[in-house]
Amino acid sequence: MNKITRYVSRTVFTAIALTLLVFLALDFIFGLISQLESVTENYTAFEAFKYMLFTMPRRLYDYIPYSCLIGCLAGLGLLASSSELVIIRAAGVSVKRIAWMTLRPALVFIFVALMIGEFVAPYSEQMADNRRHFLRYNGEQKAPQNMWNREGNEFMYVNAVLPNGVVYGLTRYHFNDQHQLESASFTRQATYQDNYWQEEDVSITYLGESAIRTELIPERRWQTNLTPNLFNILVVAPEDISLRNLHYYTDYLEKQNLTAGNYSLAFWQKILQPLATASLVLVAISFIFGPLRTVTMGQRIFTGVVFGIIFVLLQRLLGATSLVFGFPPFIAVMIPIGLCMGMGIYLLNRAR
Asked: What are the beta bridge partners of residue 214?
């Protein structure tokens, strides 16, 4: 039995690894071609190649669930095509046992995805984006990242954020309780020191009932709950943020009585991704014992690709719907996972 377990698991593991390698290779080639279209004097072809290397952890994280789906279809399908799966069943191995043999290698990739998504991808992605911005704008640190935020009665806009606690082009709009604009200020550069920001070269415009007054000051202290870590979170897309930072920023938004829909959705998508991957693997196993038992390998791979696309589209559609209609993002993320699990369990029960 141990030999059978190792053989099935090794076959499925190899199929998943090869599928993931193909996905990454194709994505790297097409992504590099896209980056080469925006090459400048500073952002050279070699820098574009380095950018793609830095973003590979995020791409690896994104492709693992669908590689598990197609890899399981290919690996089990290969065993079914050579009648080895029939022999294993004839030896008294149950469908449930074979499902566990198939799920074991997938769990390795699920664990790898968790580690990469939490500890590697968020930081390598931000490093790649920061370097690309820096080089595309002739080596200046003022590459626009166009970030808005609100804290209490104040709205702020920042041109660029550096990881070392420096922001450029800080514009602050202060409103009163009647939502009327009272003042607007522009700061060339602000540096974080201990628990406050030190603004430099500040231009302040005060809007009175009968007159507008402008004041220029060399520096000003800004007390705010926004830390460099929060600023670094703001310049990154929600799906590229680690679970810890997503929870941290969602809590900050809720304390400010602001909507955290996008970040809450990204949080639940990340935390439930292992379950989503397992549900896709369950569907793959049920397909091999059900409708895809006797078809060709090409048909199995095509089915896996189509099912993966449907799963992604359903997730995105329900995610956007939850943001529009206000129902919990957890439900939006769980619906596709629940449908996959239900389909997989139903087909496996029929196969018994």
From this structure: 205
Question: What DSSP letter does each residue of 19-44 carry, written as one string?
Answer: HHHHHHHHHHHHHHHHHHTT--SSS-
Give the separation between CA 58 and CA 129, rounded to whole angstroms: 12
Residue 157's beta-bridge partner residues? 148, 171
Q: What is the pLDDT of residues 279-297, one digit of tens each?
A: 999 999 999 988 777 788 8
pTM of the model: 0.88
At 148 the three-state DSSP class reads: strand
Paired tokens of 346: 């139903």
Altogether, the residues listed in the chain come to a count of 352
∠ Cα 229 165 60 (to 5°) = 50
Strand partners, 196: 193
Closest alpha carbon to 166 in 138, 185, 150, 143? 143
pLDDT digits (tens, 9 = 90+) for 12-42: 999 999 999 999 999 999 999 999 998 988 8
Q: Which residues contact 86 (CB under 8 A, 6 or more apart)?
A: 80
Residue 217, helix vs strand vs coil: strand
Alpha helices by DSSP H, the chain: 2-36, 45-54, 56-81, 84-90, 95-115, 121-136, 228-234, 243-255, 261-271, 273-289, 297-325, 329-351
CA distance 68 to 63: 9
